[in-house]
Amino acid sequence: MQPDSANSAPLSRPVHGGIKEEELRALGLRMEDCLDFSASVSPLGAPEGVQEAIAAVDLAAYPDPHCLALTEAAADHHAVDGVTADNVIVGNGSTEIIHLLTRAYMEERLGGCSASALLLTPTYGEYDGAVRISGGQAHTLPATRNEGGFTWDTAAAERLISQHRPALTFVCNPNNPTGALMAPEELRALAESAQSIGGLLVVDEAYINLSDRWMEGSAVGMAASLGSVVALRSMTKDYALTALRLGYAVAAPPVIARLGALQPDWSVNGLAQAAGMVALAADGYLDRARETVAASRDRVVERLGALGIRCYPTAANFVLAPVGDAAGLRDRLARRGLFVRDCTSFGLPDCIRIGLRPVDDCIRLTDAIAELLNDTKPA
Ligand SMILES: Cc1ncc(COP(=O)(O)O)c(C=O)c1O
Q1: Is residue 247 within 6 Å of ligand 1 at its C-beta?
Q2: How many angstroms separate the Cα of 152 from the Cα of each of 140, 226, 310?
Q3: 206 CB within 6 A, ligand 1
Q4: The CATH number, out of the four listed (2.10.109.10, 3.40.50.10780, 3.40.50.720, 3.40.640.10), of the domain defined by the range 50-280
Q5: pLDDT tens digits, residue range 61-71?
Q6: What is the distance between the alpha carbons of residues 214 and 368, in angstroms, rounded to a whole number?
Q7: How do residues 95-140 score in pLDDT, each as one tens digit?
Q8: Mean pLDDT estimate for the chain
């Protein structure tokens, strides 16, 4: 596939997973009767103690606009990588930080960079949405797809960085929706390219904590030591704080200060801050979540394989499965209260993305897929 540099599409909101009330009403379903495989969050639910911490929050008090305690706790969490509180900003989900980044660096440019971003696609739609809202141009480098998965030519990405001089280069690692994890040496090469033009490499690690390869793959150390890397983490996903929304970025102090100057006060509410403190202190939680993800992944891959569906290798807590008519299968599963992500909006109309829930839920889903595929087989 050839790289393209498009920018003429009108503004529209990116498509996301999650179950929408409007669809539930149309289908006559209740949320409590449904299982959501379309948003990929920790399969364990929120850590123990989170509900109590939320209940103890004084609803009549403004939250700390600087999220000081949580900023320090997040820095401590990454102390081994040399992260200090000056390297951290907390946001209302990592999505808020993506928008702060594009506002900061599309509207008011870095040195010799252009008001543009390089996106390695297919990927999370919010990058493109945020770049466009901020008036920037999105250049893309599509992945090569084959049976073994999706790969990017990082040398081509480096060439695009020198050619277009994007203020921001986004890499989602592991990538949504492919599950591919970029090797540290490739990330480093992209960081150096970004640095050479005075731009930033943004590594979105929303799914890395639930990956088997969470330690080797992370760019947090680079973000703390190089001025040109920003690492994003999603506590929404890591700790299933989905209704609260919480995320943070690790970067050099001048980048953090610039993002902080644009962030509205109190955008991270008091319940989310209290929950985040408990989550970061929850010993063993992420290990248990990773074990559950790995067990569910193996079952889903095996059971879909038995149906002739070969899932792509994944380093994330979701599985990308080529099923043919993704939209049709997604809708038929939804009628049964089972919601998966149709990947048409990613340019993959033949694939669904399955967020890994506990094993029993995954068995229910794969049983339903087997029945539906059986129903559509010619007699
Ligand atoms: C790659 C990626 N980054 C960030 C997010 C958003 O996470 P948050 O809830 O922290 O805003 C998502 C949500 O789907 C995602 O897929």
Answers
A1: yes
A2: 11, 23, 21
A3: yes
A4: 3.40.640.10
A5: 999 999 999 99
A6: 31
A7: 999 999 999 998 766 668 999 999 999 999 999 999 999 999 999 9
A8: 94
Q: What is the dihedral of CA 291, 296, 297, 302, to 10 degrees?
A: 130
Question: What is the rounded distance in angstroms from the CA atom of residue 37 to the CA atom of residue 117?
Answer: 30
Question: Does residue 245's CB lie within 6 angstroms of at least one atom of ligand 1?
Answer: yes
CA dihedral (32, 38, 42, 45) in degrees, to 10, reads -10
Q: How far is the CA of 243 from the centre of ligand 1 (A)?
A: 13
Which atom of ligand 1 lies closest to the CA of 233?
10
Q: Residue 94 C-alpha to ligand 1 middle, in angstroms?
A: 6
Ligand 1 probe mutation, 128, 176, 182, most atoms within 8 A of CB: 176
Dihedral angle, C-alpha 206, 121, 251, 70, nearest 10 °: -20
> Is the pLDDT assigned to residue 374 strictly greater than 90?
no
What percent of the chain is predicted at pLDDT more than 90? 89
For residue 358, the CA-to-ligand 1 centroid distance in Å is: 20
- What pLDDT does residue 349 have? 97
Q: Specify the DSSP class assigned to residue 244.
A: T
**Residue from 16, 95, 209, 269 whose mutation best tests the ligand 1 pocket (most atoms within 8 A of CB):** 95
Report which secondary-structure segment, H or E, holds 354: strand 351-355
At a CB cut-off of 8 Å and minimum separation 6, what does 7 contact? 132, 137, 138
**What's the confidence (pLDDT) of residue 16?**
83
Fold of domain 19-45+285-376: Aspartate Aminotransferase, domain 1 (3.90.1150)
Instruction: State whether the beta carbon of 172 lies less than 6 angstroms from ligand 1.
Output: yes
pLDDT digits (tens, 9 = 90+) for 194-203: 999 999 999 9
d(CA 181, CA 334) in angstroms, rounded, equals 30
Phi, psi of 311 (to 5 degrees): -70, 150
| Ligand 1 and 236: CB distance under 6 A | yes
Ligand 1 atom 3: the closest Cα is on which residue? 206
Domain residue ranges of the chain, discontinuous segments joined by +: 19-45+285-376, 50-280
